[in-house]
Amino acid sequence: MSEKPQTPAKAEAEVRRSAGQPSEAHAAGRGGGRAAEEERGGERGLEVRAAERAGRRRQARGEKRMEELTDAAAVEFAEVGYAKATTNAIAKRAGVSPGTLYQFFANKEALAAALSERYRVALQEAHGRAFDPSAAKLPLPEMVERMIRPMVEVNLANPGFKALFAGPDLPEHLTAPTRALQAAVVGRIAEVIAIRLPDLPAERLETTAAVATQIFAALLGTIVSVPAADRERWIDELKRALVGYLAPLESEN
Protein backbone atom coordinates (compact mmCIF):
# COMPACT_ATOMS: atom_id res chain seq x y z
CA MET A 1 0.00 0.00 0.00
CA SER A 2 1.23 3.46 -0.76
CA GLU A 3 1.93 5.79 2.20
CA LYS A 4 -0.43 8.62 2.80
CA PRO A 5 1.13 11.99 2.06
CA GLN A 6 2.27 13.88 5.21
CA THR A 7 0.39 16.91 6.29
CA PRO A 8 2.38 20.16 6.39
CA ALA A 9 2.40 20.06 10.19
CA LYS A 10 3.77 16.51 10.26
CA ALA A 11 6.34 17.38 7.63
CA GLU A 12 7.53 20.35 9.69
CA ALA A 13 7.71 18.18 12.80
CA GLU A 14 9.78 15.62 10.88
CA VAL A 15 12.16 18.33 9.73
CA ARG A 16 12.52 19.56 13.32
CA ARG A 17 13.29 16.06 14.58
CA SER A 18 15.87 15.43 11.90
CA ALA A 19 17.51 18.78 12.69
CA GLY A 20 17.50 18.07 16.42
CA GLN A 21 15.06 20.91 17.12
CA PRO A 22 12.20 20.58 19.59
CA SER A 23 8.68 20.32 18.35
CA GLU A 24 6.44 23.36 18.40
CA ALA A 25 4.59 21.97 21.39
CA HIS A 26 7.87 21.32 23.19
CA ALA A 27 9.20 24.75 22.25
CA ALA A 28 5.98 26.36 23.38
CA GLY A 29 6.24 24.47 26.65
CA ARG A 30 9.80 25.64 27.18
CA GLY A 31 8.83 29.19 26.31
CA GLY A 32 6.02 29.04 28.79
CA GLY A 33 8.42 27.67 31.39
CA ARG A 34 10.81 30.54 30.82
CA ALA A 35 8.00 33.04 31.12
CA ALA A 36 6.85 31.43 34.36
CA GLU A 37 10.41 31.42 35.67
CA GLU A 38 10.84 35.09 34.76
CA GLU A 39 7.57 35.88 36.49
CA ARG A 40 8.69 34.03 39.61
CA GLY A 41 12.03 35.86 39.46
CA GLY A 42 10.22 39.18 39.22
CA GLU A 43 8.10 38.28 42.21
CA ARG A 44 11.19 37.30 44.20
CA GLY A 45 12.80 40.63 43.26
CA LEU A 46 9.75 42.50 44.52
CA GLU A 47 9.83 40.51 47.75
CA VAL A 48 13.54 41.26 48.25
CA ARG A 49 13.03 44.98 47.66
CA ALA A 50 10.04 45.03 50.00
CA ALA A 51 12.10 43.26 52.67
CA GLU A 52 14.93 45.78 52.20
CA ARG A 53 12.52 48.71 52.60
CA ALA A 54 11.04 47.14 55.71
CA GLY A 55 14.55 46.60 57.08
CA ARG A 56 15.46 50.25 56.51
CA ARG A 57 12.28 51.36 58.27
CA ARG A 58 13.07 49.12 61.25
CA GLN A 59 16.62 50.46 61.34
CA ALA A 60 15.39 54.06 61.26
CA ARG A 61 12.94 53.35 64.09
CA GLY A 62 15.68 51.64 66.07
CA GLU A 63 18.08 54.54 65.60
CA LYS A 64 15.39 57.01 66.66
CA ARG A 65 14.64 54.95 69.77
CA MET A 66 18.34 54.78 70.67
CA GLU A 67 18.63 58.54 70.30
CA GLU A 68 15.61 59.06 72.56
CA LEU A 69 17.10 56.76 75.18
CA THR A 70 20.51 58.43 75.13
CA ASP A 71 18.84 61.86 75.33
CA ALA A 72 16.93 60.71 78.40
CA ALA A 73 20.10 59.24 79.91
CA ALA A 74 21.98 62.53 79.39
CA VAL A 75 19.33 64.44 81.34
CA GLU A 76 19.11 61.80 84.07
CA PHE A 77 22.89 61.59 84.51
CA ALA A 78 23.16 65.39 84.63
CA GLU A 79 20.37 65.73 87.20
CA VAL A 80 21.19 62.94 89.66
CA GLY A 81 24.70 61.85 88.67
CA TYR A 82 25.87 58.66 87.04
CA ALA A 83 26.07 56.67 90.28
CA LYS A 84 22.47 57.38 91.34
CA ALA A 85 20.90 57.07 87.90
CA THR A 86 18.96 53.88 87.17
CA THR A 87 17.85 52.29 83.93
CA ASN A 88 14.26 52.30 85.22
CA ALA A 89 14.36 56.07 85.69
CA ILE A 90 15.95 56.56 82.27
CA ALA A 91 13.31 54.35 80.62
CA LYS A 92 10.54 56.28 82.37
CA ARG A 93 12.01 59.58 81.23
CA ALA A 94 12.15 58.26 77.65
CA GLY A 95 8.54 57.06 77.87
CA VAL A 96 9.32 53.37 77.36
CA SER A 97 9.41 50.23 79.47
CA PRO A 98 12.67 48.95 80.98
CA GLY A 99 12.35 45.94 78.70
CA THR A 100 12.41 48.21 75.65
CA LEU A 101 15.51 49.95 76.98
CA TYR A 102 17.29 46.60 77.40
CA GLN A 103 16.60 45.77 73.76
CA PHE A 104 19.06 48.52 72.87
CA PHE A 105 21.37 48.92 75.88
CA ALA A 106 22.53 46.23 78.27
CA ASN A 107 22.96 48.60 81.22
CA LYS A 108 23.52 52.24 82.14
CA GLU A 109 27.24 51.98 81.36
CA ALA A 110 26.32 51.12 77.77
CA LEU A 111 24.16 54.24 77.70
CA ALA A 112 27.00 56.33 79.10
CA ALA A 113 29.36 54.86 76.50
CA ALA A 114 26.95 55.85 73.71
CA LEU A 115 26.74 59.36 75.15
CA SER A 116 30.50 59.59 75.43
CA GLU A 117 30.94 58.65 71.79
CA ARG A 118 28.21 61.06 70.66
CA TYR A 119 29.80 63.93 72.56
CA ARG A 120 33.30 63.04 71.37
CA VAL A 121 32.20 63.12 67.72
CA ALA A 122 30.32 66.42 68.19
CA LEU A 123 33.25 68.00 70.02
CA GLN A 124 35.76 66.82 67.43
CA GLU A 125 33.66 68.29 64.63
CA ALA A 126 33.35 71.59 66.54
CA HIS A 127 37.12 71.70 67.04
CA GLY A 128 37.65 71.21 63.33
CA ARG A 129 35.53 74.27 62.56
CA ALA A 130 36.72 76.41 65.46
CA PHE A 131 40.44 75.91 65.01
CA ASP A 132 40.74 75.97 61.25
CA PRO A 133 44.19 77.45 60.53
CA SER A 134 42.70 79.67 57.82
CA ALA A 135 40.99 81.70 60.58
CA ALA A 136 44.41 83.06 61.60
CA LYS A 137 44.42 85.35 58.55
CA LEU A 138 41.09 87.00 59.35
CA PRO A 139 40.70 90.35 61.13
CA LEU A 140 40.94 89.72 64.88
CA PRO A 141 37.20 90.12 65.71
CA GLU A 142 36.30 87.71 62.88
CA MET A 143 38.95 85.23 63.99
CA VAL A 144 37.56 85.25 67.53
CA GLU A 145 34.01 84.82 66.22
CA ARG A 146 35.12 81.89 64.06
CA MET A 147 36.79 80.23 67.04
CA ILE A 148 34.14 80.63 69.71
CA ARG A 149 30.91 80.14 67.74
CA PRO A 150 31.27 76.37 67.09
CA MET A 151 32.30 75.79 70.70
CA VAL A 152 29.28 77.68 72.01
CA GLU A 153 26.99 75.80 69.64
CA VAL A 154 28.23 72.34 70.64
CA ASN A 155 27.70 73.16 74.32
CA LEU A 156 24.23 74.58 73.66
CA ALA A 157 23.30 71.47 71.69
CA ASN A 158 24.51 69.18 74.50
CA PRO A 159 23.69 70.95 77.78
CA GLY A 160 23.76 67.79 79.90
CA PHE A 161 27.07 66.50 78.61
CA LYS A 162 29.22 69.14 80.29
CA ALA A 163 27.75 68.33 83.70
CA LEU A 164 28.00 64.62 83.01
CA PHE A 165 31.63 64.55 81.91
CA ALA A 166 32.74 67.02 84.56
CA GLY A 167 31.27 64.81 87.28
CA PRO A 168 33.44 62.58 89.46
CA ASP A 169 31.44 59.35 89.25
CA LEU A 170 31.55 58.47 85.54
CA PRO A 171 34.05 55.64 84.85
CA GLU A 172 37.40 56.95 83.66
CA HIS A 173 37.47 54.84 80.50
CA LEU A 174 34.26 56.56 79.36
CA THR A 175 35.48 60.11 79.97
CA ALA A 176 39.08 59.71 78.78
CA PRO A 177 38.48 60.32 75.03
CA THR A 178 36.41 63.45 75.70
CA ARG A 179 38.80 64.78 78.32
CA ALA A 180 41.66 64.35 75.85
CA LEU A 181 39.81 66.52 73.32
CA GLN A 182 39.05 69.14 75.95
CA ALA A 183 42.67 69.19 77.05
CA ALA A 184 43.75 69.70 73.45
CA VAL A 185 41.88 73.02 73.20
CA VAL A 186 44.83 75.04 74.53
CA GLY A 187 47.11 73.46 71.95
CA ARG A 188 44.65 74.08 69.12
CA ILE A 189 44.30 77.75 70.08
CA ALA A 190 48.08 78.04 70.29
CA GLU A 191 48.40 76.67 66.75
CA VAL A 192 46.09 79.37 65.36
CA ILE A 193 47.82 82.16 67.30
CA ALA A 194 51.24 80.89 66.18
CA ILE A 195 50.18 81.26 62.54
CA ARG A 196 48.90 84.76 63.22
CA LEU A 197 51.87 85.84 65.35
CA PRO A 198 54.83 83.72 64.20
CA ASP A 199 57.35 85.79 66.20
CA LEU A 200 55.60 85.27 69.54
CA PRO A 201 57.95 83.39 71.92
CA ALA A 202 56.90 79.82 72.67
CA GLU A 203 56.42 80.42 76.40
CA ARG A 204 54.29 83.51 75.76
CA LEU A 205 52.33 81.61 73.13
CA GLU A 206 51.46 78.81 75.55
CA THR A 207 50.43 81.27 78.27
CA THR A 208 48.30 83.30 75.85
CA ALA A 209 46.45 80.21 74.64
CA ALA A 210 45.83 79.05 78.21
CA VAL A 211 44.47 82.45 79.31
CA ALA A 212 42.22 82.69 76.24
CA THR A 213 40.86 79.24 77.07
CA GLN A 214 40.14 80.30 80.65
CA ILE A 215 38.32 83.44 79.49
CA PHE A 216 36.13 81.30 77.26
CA ALA A 217 35.47 78.73 79.99
CA ALA A 218 34.61 81.44 82.54
CA LEU A 219 31.75 82.82 80.43
CA LEU A 220 30.59 79.61 78.77
CA GLY A 221 28.45 78.51 81.73
CA THR A 222 26.57 81.80 81.69
CA ILE A 223 26.10 81.71 77.91
CA VAL A 224 24.58 78.24 78.07
CA SER A 225 22.31 78.96 81.03
CA VAL A 226 20.89 82.42 80.23
CA PRO A 227 17.56 82.78 78.39
CA ALA A 228 17.90 82.60 74.62
CA ALA A 229 16.90 86.26 74.29
CA ASP A 230 19.99 87.30 76.29
CA ARG A 231 22.46 84.84 74.79
CA GLU A 232 23.87 86.92 71.95
CA ARG A 233 24.58 89.76 74.37
CA TRP A 234 26.74 87.44 76.47
CA ILE A 235 28.44 86.01 73.39
CA ASP A 236 29.29 89.57 72.35
CA GLU A 237 30.80 90.16 75.80
CA LEU A 238 32.91 87.04 75.41
CA LYS A 239 34.14 88.23 72.02
CA ARG A 240 35.00 91.66 73.44
CA ALA A 241 36.92 90.08 76.31
CA LEU A 242 38.97 87.89 73.98
CA VAL A 243 39.63 90.62 71.43
CA GLY A 244 40.63 92.97 74.25
CA TYR A 245 43.07 90.39 75.57
CA LEU A 246 44.61 89.44 72.22
CA ALA A 247 44.77 92.87 70.53
CA PRO A 248 47.79 94.16 72.52
CA LEU A 249 49.79 91.13 71.39
CA GLU A 250 49.33 92.21 67.79
CA SER A 251 50.56 95.70 68.64
CA GLU A 252 53.63 94.24 70.33
CA ASN A 253 54.38 91.91 67.43
Task: Give an overview of the whole structure.
Helix content is 81%, strand content 0%. It has a domain of 140 residues: Orthogonal Bundle (Tetracycline Repressor, domain 2). It is built from 11 helices and no strands. The longest helix has 57 residues. The mean pLDDT is 84. The protein has 253 residues and is an all-alpha fold. Helix 2 packs across helix 7, helix 5 packs parallel to helix 8 and helix 6 runs antiparallel to helix 11. This is TetR family transcriptional regulator. It comes from Kribbella caucasensis.
Q: Report mean pLDDT, rounded to a whole number.
A: 84
CATH third-tier fold name of the domain at 113-252: Tetracycline Repressor, domain 2
Instruction: Classify the helix fraction into a percent range.
Output: over 70%
Classified by CATH, the class of the domain at 113-252 is Mainly Alpha
What is the strand tally?
0
List the helices and strands and how they pair.
Elements: H1 8-18, H2 24-80, H3 87-94, H4 98-104, H5 108-130, H6 140-157, H7 159-166, H8 172-183, H9 185-196, H10 202-225, H11 228-252
Domain HTH tetR-type: 63-123
DNA-binding region: 86-105
InterPro entries: DNA-bd_HTH_TetR-type_CS, Homeodomain-like_sf, HTH-type_TetR-like_transc_reg, HTH_TetR, TetR_C_15
